[in-house]
Amino acid sequence: MRSAESTVTSTAELFGVSRNTIYKYVPEPKGGRATLGEPNSTPTLPRPSQPAE
Questions:
Q1: Residue-wise pLDDT tens digits, 3-35
Q2: Strand, helix or coil at 46?
Q3: Which segments of the chain does DSSP mark as H helices, in order?
Q4: How far apart are CA 35 and CA 42, in angstroms?
Q5: Is the pLDDT of residue 49 over 90?
Q6: How far, in Å, CA of 8 to CA of 38, rounded?
Q7: I need a surface site. Which of 22, 26, 29, 32 has the fewest CB within 10 A?
Q8: Cα 4 vs. chain centroid, distance in angstroms?
Q9: Per-residue pLDDT at 20
C-alpha cells in the first residue's frame, strides 16, 4: 500500500476483504496519498533494544 500505484480495491482483493474493511482498519498516511511517492515518506520504526549482558 505504500506504492502510489496501489489501489484500495487491489489491496482488498489481495487480502480477500472488502474496500470498507481497508478504509476502516488502515489509517490514511499523513499528508494523504500524494506523500506516498516522496522519498522520505516511510516512517522509521524503533529498533529493538539490546538485552543487557
A1: 666 788 998 999 999 999 988 888 876 766 655
A2: coil
A3: 8-15, 19-25
A4: 9
A5: no
A6: 19
A7: 32
A8: 11
A9: 93
